[in-house]
Amino acid sequence: MSRDQMRELQGKRLHKIVEYVYHNVPFYREKLQQMDLTPEDITTIDDIVKLPFTTKKDLRDNDPFGLQAAPASEIIRIHASSGTTGNPTIVGYTRKDIGVWTECMARSLTSFGVGRDDIFSVAYGYGLFTGGLGAHNGVEKVGAAVVPASTGNTEKHARLIRDLGITGIACTPSYALYLAETMEKMGITKDQIKLRTGAFGAEPWTEGMRQEIQQRLGLKGYNIYGLSEIMGPSVSYECDAQNGSHINEDHFFPEIINPETLEPLPYGQTGELVFTTLTKEGMPVLRYRTRDLCSLMEGRCSCGRTNVRMTAIEGRSDDMLIIRGINVFPSQVESVVLTMEEIAPRYMLVVDRVNNLDTLMVQVELRQEYFNATMDTPAAIDELSKKLANKLKSVLSIAAKVQLKAPGTIERSQGKSTRVIDNRKLK
Ligand code: DLL
Questions:
Q1: How much distance in Å is there from the Cα of 201 to the middle of ligand 1?
Q2: Are 199 and 173 in contact (CB under 8 A)?
Q3: N or C: which end of the chain has fewer CB within 10 A?
Q4: Which of 301, 316, 331 finishes a domain?
Q5: Which pLDDT score is estimated for 418?
Q6: Pocket test residue of 81, 136, 203, 206 for ligand 1, highest count of atoms within 8 A of CB
């Protein structure tokens, strides 16, 4: 599609989606009315800058179904992403939304060269996380045979890769490295396996990691990007040229803004990525601030595709961490700590990468009274650690080691308090 045709399509779809949320989502109607806007004011894609932004806080404040535009009877799937305070953000999809998502995922896989003759294993988590089921539907759509391996059980997965002749895999890049290491330990060599394509995403990764995964698993690794609030995996995807990821911009309109001033930035400049869903029915969002930092690239790609590309994610404009593919906010840990009277509201997250797997340790300080009372009873300390670890697991969805410390021993910072020590080195 030419740029003009694309922009015309985007403009039509934008008008329609604004009209749709105006009539179906009180939150947006109020926002637009406050800004003296009606859907008639939005006729071309350039009008997008008139619209209000949406933030994760807006989603949380309207939790769980406040921003849902379609009636409950039309929703056929519900996913969730991590919220900043422990409550996940709920996203409902209509049948049409699942169809669009599946189509976008199929576009990505096709771009990676996956087709009917492939046996493709999905090793993203199946569940509330969008990675597993999202990738799964796309693999079926392109007609490859899907192996719903999910995460965990890595040795069994490694044997399946060898014994079934699996040709493609979707997982986080760090899991791919862990899988490579597991295979090496098991004595499975590259010439015993047929892997040739990897669809890697859900966390930031680098060219260095790409080279290492490719070399150790003998495949070509492609980037795939997405987020639950917009859809899931396949908001954008790489092609053979591997010069940025093509955005499915007929469904998700991208902008880059300065995260401080909220001013739109031109192509080529790094800032915060913002998306407007142009066709979504379940939970459409206007100008959703992803907090991901990158830049946009225009111009026909050497692969022939004409849709806009985004560079690899360079960082975040908030404090979200991605640990084993799971989004973790320090404030989630705080929300747990605050529920426990034995513990002072002082904590530190220590993130590391051991044998290619991310680890999380949460250090907390005991309150003086509790510390005095239990100093000589290791059983009580042990029980408290377990209680905290269980609570953290249920809020964060990943296991964390807990370290209970004596009062006053977590380092006090002079200025802005530091809550995270991230020892992972992304090459
Ligand atoms: O991670 C969706 C997904 C699943 C994408 C599988 C790709 C593959 P969330 O859990 O909502 O959704 O997390 C979204 O993860 O805002 C980014 O910060 C980060 N992220 C996702 N893909 C990439 C990527 C899924 N390819 C958040 N590179 C996003 C860097 C990524 N960061």
A1: 6
A2: no
A3: C
A4: 316
A5: 79
A6: 203
Q: Among 277, 293, 316, where does a domain finish? A: 316
Where would I find the beta strands (DSSP E) of 228-342? Answer: 232-237, 245-247, 252-257, 271-277, 288-294, 296-297, 309-310, 315-316, 321-323, 326-328
- Atom 9, ligand 1: which residue's CA is nearest? 227
Q: What is the DSSP string of 394-412?
A: HHHSS--EEEEE-TT-SPP
Does residue 76 form part of some domain?
no
**Shared-domain flag, residues 194 and 207:** yes
Task: Assess whether the C-beta atom of 212 lies below 6 angstroms from ligand 1.
Answer: no
Instruction: State in Å: Cα 74 to ligand 1 middle.
Output: 26
| DSSP-H helix ranges across 112-242 | 130-142, 154-164, 173-186, 207-217
DSSP H/E element including 203: none
Beta strands in 295-336 (DSSP E): 296-297, 309-310, 315-316, 321-323, 326-328
pLDDT at 414 over 70: no
- Ligand 1 close to Cβ of residue 115 (< 6 A): no
Number of structural domains, the chain?
2
Residue with tokens 């039509």: 12
68 lines ligand 1 (CB under 6 A): no
Which residues constitute the domain of residue 277? 93-316
Same domain, 289 and 356: no
Strands 245-247 and 252-257, bridge-based pairing? unpaired
- Express each pLDDT in 374-403 by its tens digit: 988 999 999 999 999 999 999 999 999 999
CATH of the domain at 205: 3.40.50.12780
